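The freezer alarm interrupted the setup, so I double-checked each line after restarting. Inputs confirmed:
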Amino acid sequence: FRVLALETSADDTCAAIVDASRRVWSNVVVPQNYIHEAMGGIQPMVALLAHQRNIPTVVQRALTEAKLEMADIDGVAFTRGPGIPGCLSVCLNAAKTLAAANNKPLVGVHHMQAHALTPHLTLDSPPSFPFLSVLVSGGHTMIVLVSSLVDFRILCNTVDRSIGATIDRVVTLLKIPWTDKGPGPGLEKFCAERAPEDSGPAPKYDPPVPMPGKLAFSYAGLHSWVERTVSAAGGVEHVNRHALARAFQNSAFEQLETKLQLALRAHGHAVRHVVVSGGVASNLHLRQRLKRSVRGPVEFIFPEPALCTDNAAMIAWASMHRFLAGDHDDYAIDPLPAWSLDELKNPPPNKDA
Ligand code: ATP
Ligand code: FE
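Predicted 3D structure, all chains:
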């Protein structure tokens, strides 16, 4: 069974073809970083227009690179939510139209379920259920207990904003250059490099520790601490940017580490694997830290960086079990911009419908 999947929930326009034997025939990602860097973050309307412009080319490339035609495709999948409302409508409409015109079944996928199940696509021996999934991305910061392909229970969630969104804002605030892969890799590179300012005495930056002992994340306080530190110094030119960026990155990752330890203590008795995915999981410093911080028989799984950030291969794979069970969605299906993993099996009715 071969699935063509489309993903446009944030700022990457993606199409991929994956089959039931886990072969990835093609996996095309067209990013928009070059557009959004100038504006200091994702602008929803700009992202929507770029998706509209790029989606036909991306679909065409996915078919050409796989040397396949629509006749060789057995089902069409797309990201139903969560994500930026206007952006989601691009992959939804394209997938519906492709499916209807070619008389193929259609499946709408939960974007975070797809991030969590990525190792089941890439590994010959995937994590056994139940496993813990640490989802760290642009829109989410969660620890989830995954008991089957469709049973997800959120154990720890952010009370304010996500780690990825916080990283992106701090990168803008500290005027850290993006890499061609965006602001997050820019922070990683900036923290790892030796800078001229490192030759002087390092100032002591002391970030706050949010909600100690609680199974909840918070990143708003860390963000405003960076803002306060910069404005107290009289501007970004007057702080040691490398030292401050490292203090921020350390604190952001330390929070993941301590909450994961708490979650493992409370819910980890049957858990043998911890899967860390979502864009922030591509950070190599974070990977090393997490592996060092947890003792005991749990094994960490980090998908390769290119499959941690947004892609349609993960969407295709997360749809596969439904296609194989003959469980399809109606062509009239609506997007779900705010869809919780706790409601994966029973999606809420679309309020606008
Ligand atoms: P969501 O998956 O929650 O809908 P999204 O799809 O926009 O959000 P992803 O593409 O999964 O998010 O992740 C993007 C986030 O990951 C951005 O905030 C980006 O800065 C961050 N990120 C990417 N690479 C790195 C890295 N090497 N270090 C730190 N953060 C990173
Ligand atoms: Fe994502």
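Quick read of the result. The CA atoms of residues 36 and 42 lie 5 Å apart.
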